[in-house]
Amino acid sequence: MVLSFFRGGDSGLDHVVTRSVAMVTDARHSFDLACTALMSGADPRSIAGDVRETDLRINANEQQLRGELAVHISVHGPNDIGEVIGLILLLKKIERVGDHAKNILDLAETGVSFASESDIDELLEERRIVSGFFTEASEILAEHDGIPESFRDRVNAMIAQIQSRIDAYMTSERPAHQVVPRAVYHRYLKRIVANLNSAVLAATEPVRVADDSG
Amino acid sequence: MRVVAPRPLGSAEREMPTGARAALVVALIYIFLVGVSSLEAGIKIMGADTQERLFSAVSNPIAGLCVGILGTVLVQSSSASTSVIVGLVASNALGVDQAVPMIMGANIGTTVTNTLVSLGHVRQSAEFKRAFAAATVHDFFNVLAVSILLPIELIFRPISGTAKWVSELLVGSSGTEWKSPVKKWVKEPVGWLKDLWDQLGASGNVKGALMVATGLAIVLVALVLVTKNMKALVAARIERSLNAILGKAGGFVALVVGILVTIAVQSSSITTSILIPLSAAGVLTLRNAYPVTLGANVGTTITALLAALAASSPDSLTVALTHTTFNVVGILLLYVLPFAREVPVLAANRMADIAVRRRVLAVCYVVFLFIVAPLLGVAVLR
């Protein structure tokens, strides 16, 4: 550990960004597993341990990286304060994504399963798209090139689509045991997409600067 | 009004190439050594009368201790004050016996910076308590170390004796002229400074005083710039090391990290001041921060050792080594022994409890320890 002083490698904010990408990958792993429990008919108990362990890892990483950001500010002074605020927000958003993935697992553990339902293909397609957002978010964080316009558009479209489903469930005349789990699931799904969007926004535009010159 | 996004993460600008900054640091260290040598030359020009006056001013060891505290508080750097002491010893303006208490005083005085930093957290009780404890643990360690070791040193001379033995092993016995290779490198610019004051019409004591003033200015400015540039050079390394301590490193690792970081930035104040906001935020516990401050105590002695390279007397090296020996022995006494280790920590926690309840007492403590007490000591005992 003393040798850490002499070693090279990722340092400071770059290191936090690299670790946050790994956290997004972990969050995706949790999300995919939780959705598998809900949509494939697999026994949730066989998946629960992995999801909870991953969630704990995400939470521990968040705490550790927040400590590292405090070290960064102490060592470098306030020059990077905007970036540090952005990263703290980013870490919090990723942690929340992990929490919602765990909520989806909780739903499966209460006995909810969409595996043999008539709308399973739609649900699987939504899951595939959202899972893809995780990958894109990781790439955006790793590349530091800002948020592509197409990503913003697709995320916003997905949020709108999920909200319209929730609205439809609220007024549906289908039995409660069918619409309530779907409304709850979609609520979690919407929070996951919104938090992913906020995470990349926090990383690429940590603090907006008012500029009167233009 | 439009809204623009700032630079994305990970794209922090680097102002100066690393190689250029490293070369600048080497140049600044050279200038620092010129400053020490100029100081020595100035005192020598001022003659025996001045040297005697300086001697008599600090002949009482407690007065010397207080001068060490005050001088260090004034420049907020023990590296600077101990380098000046080394320069004074090199010019025979101070003897080893007078310099040792001053060196110990410098150790106490240097803790003022992080204590002042901790006062910045005064508005938040919990934060302030943690910050003040992290700052005063350094004070308590240094005051305790001086309280124990100064009387022993005055009677038996074990610290300066050890330092003298090491010094003689390295450069020969005191009283002989030490042919330091660095001395030769800095001789020329010191000669230019003498010529400059000659050409401006200065002579005798005036010329000596101007050489001393120039030397002091060069030492202080060079040290500030060395510290600033070294910090920029090694900031990422400091960050990695502190993160290692936050993880699972033990006390010994933290101590070594404190030594390395302080050697790198040539300032214990920088190292210990970095710890204060981390302690205030609760990221670093007092027990994790404590060994880092002890490492900083040892690391900061490198500057006086460096200054001794530019001096011509083996006694200056003895004094610089006394600084290192004092801090190492202090750690052996107050950190390696488990029951003693808790004393500064408990005292700092107790002091922080009091400071949180009566914040004005925290300010009184700083003013008394670093200004009033040493001023009284100098006034009464000199």
* Number of helices, counting only DSSP H or I runs of 4 residues or more of chain A: 6
Assembly state (oligomeric): heterodimer
From the spread of the alpha carbons, the general shape of chain A counts as: elongated
Spans of chain B with pLDDT under 50 lasting ≥5 residues?
1-13
Kindly give the count of domains of chain A.
1
Query: How large a portion of the residues of chain B is in β-strands, by DSSP E?
Result: under 5%
Helix-strand makeup class of chain B? mainly alpha
- Gyration radius of chain B (Cα, Å) is 21 Å
Give a concise summary.
With 214 residues, chain A is an all-alpha fold.
Throw out a few tags for this protein.
heterodimer; A: 6 helices; elongated; B: 382 residues; mainly alpha; disordered N terminus
Question: What features would you describe in this structure?
Answer:
The complex is a heterodimer of chains A (214) and B (382). Chain A is built from six helices and one strand. Chain A is an all-alpha fold. In chain A, helix 1 (12-39) packs parallel to helix 3 (81-109) and helix 2 packs antiparallel against helix 3 (81-109). The longest helix of chain A is centred in the N-terminal third of the chain and has 33 residues, at 44-76. Chain A is elongated. The N and C termini of chain A lie far apart (50 Å). By secondary structure, chain B is an all-alpha fold. Chain B contains 16 helices and one strand. In chain B, helix 1 (18-57) crosses helix 3 (78-90) and helix 5 (112-119) runs antiparallel to helix 6. The model of chain B is unreliable at 1-13 (pLDDT under 50). The chains are: A mainly alpha (214), B mainly alpha (382). Chains A and B meet through helix 1, helix 2, helix 3 and strand 1 of A and strand 1, helix 9, helix 10 and helix 11 of B.
